[in-house]
Give the backbone structure.
Amino acid sequence: PMTEGTETLRFGIDLGGTKIEIIGLAVTAEKTSNTVYKKRIPTPKGDYEATIKALKELVLEAESSLFAGASQPLFAQPALVGVAIPGAISYKTGKVKNANSTWLIGQDLQFDLALALDRPVNLANDANCFALSEALDGSAEGADVVFGVILGTGCGGAVVVNGHILGGVNAIAGEWGHNPLPWSSPQDIQLPCYCGLQGCNETFLSGSGFERHFLHRTGLEKTVQEILLLSEQNDLVAEQLLQDYIVWLAKGLASVINIVDPDVIVLGGGLSNIQRLYTEVPKVWENWVFSDRVDTKLVPPEHGDSSGVRGAAWL
């Protein structure tokens, strides 16, 4: 049992396609939290063993730096560890499925990581962690139904109802990234998706999809940041792609609103930093929402890129 005045240390890890972030939260008995540690490293892409090793080293390094020189234990017990992963844990096998970081698929990540760290580890989908964090104490705090969106390396989604993640019988609730882009027009190029289908929302709305569409239109390989910079400099192709992206996002979210009708939609991931999305998407999504008016709020995350990692800490 926690004694008065002691805090629990919770580590949240966001295992992304390009970066791994760890955060340490000191949590009081009243469930207030304070960030005491933070670090990011590049993801060892394509290498499962190196990924486990990197995760283990991050946790051990965080603990040693927090406990260095402490004459008495600062926290009540060994740190709890939660990990936000791209994809989901199969109810059938206990192994990772549906991950756009494809080297994780079919691996028993939870078991291997618990073994490496010698303690239990909680895993959840990264979009679920993100939505939970924003619904509990972020920009959707107090809303009954929240749809959390990750617009990053992939395109994830999650539904939180009254502060609880909606998991679903297949562990895929909110996975709108692998529905087809709705009401698509003939000029919308249907790119193949890693899931085996083509024209998925993810191929239009993820950062990698954004870059692929630019490459298709120009023959040039540019990062999302470079394309956005070009659009600010009035590059016609980059600006047109951004305008198309706004319409694609409005259509994708309209189909979600038609089914779930959330109070708040929170955007996360690298593309959530595009300020124009919050003003321009709500202006056009009413074209596809089956209602005389749309009161759904579209908001940026209060905790920015760290919402997934904070949600993981709360698992």
Q: What stands out?
A: The chain is about 35% helix and 20% strand. The longest strand covers residues 33-42. Residues 236-260 form the longest helix (25 residues).
